[in-house]
Amino acid sequence: MPGNLPPETAGFIGREAELADLEGLLEERRLVTLTGVGGVGKTRLALRAATRLSRSRPRGMRPHGIRSHGLWSHGIWWVELSPLRDPALLTTTVAHALGLADHAAHRPDEELCAWMADKTLLLVLDTCEHMVAEVRHLTGELLQSAPGLTVLTTSRERLDSPGETVLEVRPLPCEGPDSEALALFRASALAASPQSSPLFADPAGARTAAEVCRRLDGIPLALELAGARMRLWSLEQMAQRLGARFEVLCGPRAALPPRHQTMRTAIGWSHELCEPVERLLWARLSVFSGDFDVAAARAVCSGGPLPAARVERVLEGLVAKSVVRRSEERGAGARYRMLDTIREFGHDWLAELDEVRTVADRHAHWYAALSGAAERGWLGPGQVDWYRRMSAEHAQLRTALEHLLGTDPPAALEMAGGLWFFWFSCGHVHEGRAVLERALGGAPPAGAARAQALWALGLTMLAQGDMEAARRVGADCAREAALLGEPERQLRAAYLCAVSVLMPGDPVEALALAGPGARAAHGGPTSGAGWLLCRLATAFALYDLGRFEEAAQEARGLREACAELGERWLRAYADYVLALAALGLSQHGEAARHVRAMLSGKRLLGDRFGIALGLDLLAAAVAALGDGELAARLLGTGHAWWRTVGRPQMGSPALTALRDLGERQARAAIGDAAYETAFRGGAAAPTG
């Protein structure tokens, strides 16, 4: 089944009744919310249920005529909202989790509703309490637009949406020698200290362990934090220290609901039992949203009594105490994160230390520096690695930009403009445009950073098909570049202007703006983004003019330049133009070879727009070779990919004509009925 469910973490015990109730509700209801105190296990329950449902068989028809979960044919999709701080990015975050690229100029919620209208899927929105109103509005829009949609949310409070069914997640039962709370506490203790097993087998030890579970109200996170201390203490010491902690802290917090009080007290107890440098690192780590790596922790959190050389060791100490969780990302090393409840406690402590602004500044400037390094390396052999790393750091980039927009507008402008490749090439067009417009709104009226941000803004407009706006911004970029006297910036502006007239159908003007004569007039490095992009625009313009051999020559030159640099994103587009030119010269086998190379490169970089383009072109090539059935399937798959982009063929007459050519040839080869069957089969293929 399609989807993006994260792997389950260790520590799920019992809850069979709740799972059965939740699965039953998801079969019958379209909006279900899991509520409960922080740390009670809402996320784990949702993930366990979603994982089980993804593996189960269909069980009949739902009341509104949609097949139940076993035929959620478009998958089960998980959207983690915990790292999201800006409610305006909610729709974009959901769309990105679903694998949609935001290339259309329409509002993101309109695009998402349109894409989802004919889908049958389960959407899980995890951790919604910090943007309840926005989640309520979005889910209402989606459920109205998509009859096959079911939504499961987790939140500390209900959404109060029409038709919402609320299921409260309660603490684990504590009564009896085989209680679920005791089982979780035992599992956590044994993970921390395997030699503690005999303590639980002894009747007196079992009674003491049960008392610990009762004092912690059966709250899973509190039980895990307590279990992690078993590497140092006996059960009796645990019970005594826990009892003393509650006697000291419960009184002043009597205004809190009992379970909130228990959770807060348990976290505070764990905090007191940490070493001073562990408490300091805990507080400073609270500035991270989502997960992070050890290099970022070292750069952001060191200082004073915590030197950089000790950060990794102290971090591992917090992992051992279950304060921080570690996961191994394939090919990317270890990454770390804190649960929301623990991070909130740490942030309160950071405020007590009066370090919130200082550490947030360090965080923002670390990720601004990382963005600069990524921009410098983007056109080189590390491009795929940079794509993966910056995608993994997306939540941190957002947090850093938001902080800089409020505290250091010039730095925000520089960072937003430097991320042009992330917005334009990595599928974050709507978000990039919004950030760049905000940054430019508070920017100085001139300068290199402004020129860079303007160019990046123009790229997002091109990617959305907003050619009129891109043309205006391109003219502004050209003026800024002329004032700065920098050839590379002039070439970048020329690319904007050229593509903004090429896509609507004026290759002659595009060639005049970006062709060899214009490049020679501007000068500049032949390895810069501006020069390479102008070569690409030139190759496309020559193809549109029917000058296929010249287009192939320009594309070969671009491909060689990219290969020398170790670059993949532009190189794949050079392969695309080589395929176009070969098709124009009736070299259909050669065209198919080039476009397959192009698709290989685009898949490495997750370029949905490029994949959609390539599938249309491959369909035209194989149709010309006589394989109408494969062409129809490719066109169907291409149609599905275009829907994830937002605007089929970007409204380009040339791209539309190419796609239509493939369809005519495929229909002629196999007939309309066979074409429709094959097309539908291709359209049903997953796009992830």
| Cα-based radius of gyration, to the nearest Å | 28 Å
Oligomer: single chain
Shape: globular
Poorly predicted sequence stretches spanning 5 or more consecutive residues? 58-70, 248-256
Whole-number average pLDDT?
Answer: 90
Q: How do the strands line up in the largest sheet?
A: 2-3-4-1-5
Task: Describe the fold and architecture.
- By secondary structure, this protein is mainly alpha-helical.
- The chain is 65% helix and 5% strand.
- The chain has 34 helices and 7 strands.
- The strands form 2 sheets. Strands 2-3-4-1-5 form a 5-stranded parallel beta sheet, sandwiched between helices.
- Helix 22 runs parallel beside helix 24.
- The longest helix has 22 residues.
- The chain starts with 15 loop residues before the first helix and ends in a 5-residue tail after the last helix.
- 52% of the residues are buried.
Provide a compact summary of the structure:
This protein has 688 residues and is mostly helical.
List the helices and strands and how they pair.
Layout: H1 16-28, E1 31-35, H2 42-54, E2 76-80, H3 90-97, H4 108-116, E3 121-126, H5 132-145, E4 149-154, E5 165-168, H6 180-192, H7 197-201, H8 203-215, H9 220-228, H10 235-249, H11 258-273, H12 276-285, H13 294-301, H14 308-320, E6 325-329, E7 333-337, H15 340-352, H16 356-377, H17 383-392, H18 394-407, H19 409-418, H20 420-425, H21 429-441, H22 448-463, H23 467-484, H24 487-502, H25 507-514, H26 516-522, H27 529-544, H28 548-565, H29 569-584, H30 588-604, H31 608-624, H32 628-645, H33 653-670, H34 672-683
Parallel strand pairs: 1-4, 1-5, 2-3, 3-4
Antiparallel strand pairs: 6-7
